[in-house]
Amino acid sequence: MGFSEKKIAVIGGGLGGMAFMNSAIHTGLRNVHLYEAAAEFTEVGAGVNITKNANRVLDTFGLGEDMLWRSSRNPPSYMEYRHYRTGEYLGQIDEFGDPKSRQIHRAHLLDVLRKKVPDEMLSTGKKLEALEWSVEQNSYILTFKDKTTTTADIVIGCDGIKSAVRKHLGFKDSPIYSGQMVYRGYVSYDDLTAETAELLHKTVNFRGPQRHVLTLPIGNDESKTSRIGIIAFMTEPLEGWTSESWLDKAPIDDLYEHVKDWTGAVQEIIAGLRKGHPDGLILKQTLYVREPTEKWFRTDTAENGIILIGDSVHSTLPHQGMETDPQKTGQGACMAIESGFALSQILQHWPSSSGDLQSALQCFQDIRKPRTDKITKTSYEAGKIASCAIPEEMWIDTFKPDVIRDRMKWVMEYDLLGDIRSKLISKEQERSESYDGDGAKGVEVRA
């Protein structure tokens, strides 16, 4: 059943690639190998908020315990909102049930995902330079910068918004600047007053005009990983960005100029950033997005193809979840986790007589594309609204946490396993009806 015997090459060892590897191992795909361009597996950035929809998947892999060892636990609310200038409480969004959201350093999450993947299934220092279909070998030939090569029956591009696999598929489009940049750093609880430290043990959004500062309570005291992730979204013109990369370092003073008249808690955050970053620099990132891609894959034979997942095909701004106010939900990472799980399940359990690889990849796209397109669209719209100068006297009409929470339910309460199962059962029933009418006995999505 499925394509379990095919040789699969995964390009990119970030959160999306590692999530696919965990799912492949869990579902029984064994002939899989991951190639990472960097010399070692690492994640650059601050904390990430992994929400209920993705935690369901990670818990399916058996990663929940390891993740909770390094993440926050049992948050009192999903997010609390404060006025940027006065610090006044504006409202909150409650959690969406178990498993609750987990705030964790991106590198720590990658470590958790890396733990269950055998070393022999991973290679580093493999920057993809060429990807060609060989009629003679009936496989893809992958050439890396170090001049080594390998072959594969199926290639999965998990290599981010600047995907090399995407370029080799012939896409000519470029990412679109969103209008916002984000400053990222960490603050120690020891560098705050008791009152502010207590406040920032929650996920807090200091909401301002065209700007907001989000704090994530990363980690926990037991594992000595507890600290505050600072993610500050600021509207800035791209003309001021001089780096050739999408990620660089910038003076803390630049962030301070945006928030120098904000509430005392934010001033403590600035002071804490200065103490925690003695060189006076923190990460600064330009936020880009892609227009939804019409087709995510290409097949060269009935059993050979290339497929994109994660930011390589559905890059998502960190604003998803509300149409009137932005927030950091980590849905880019969460969508990559969902997609990795869905693809491995379909490749493993695809009914052998239900068609070729194109049919399987089309089914995967049909499951994932409507959801990721909607995530991308609403994230982009929320970011645009965040960049607009809405008068404060209009906030009461535009900012309603209860309404926002209702609008987020479709993201958080999505049953990915059920969706995959129903699609596979439908395919199995189609096959059975064409033979003996006995439907869907063999389909078992591993949960």
Automatic annotation (TrEMBL):
The keyword Zinc does not apply. Residues 428-447 are annotated as: Disordered. InterPro entries: FAD-bd (IPR002938), FAD/NAD-bd_sf (IPR036188), FAD_monoxygenase (IPR051104). Coiled coil: none annotated. Residues 7-322 form the FAD-binding domain. Pfam families: FAD_binding_3. Keywords: FAD, Flavoprotein, Oxidoreductase. It comes from the Eukaryota. The keyword Secreted does not apply. SUPFAM superfamilies: FAD-linked reductases, C-terminal domain, FAD/NAD(P)-binding domain. This is FAD-binding domain-containing protein. It comes from Paecilomyces lecythidis.
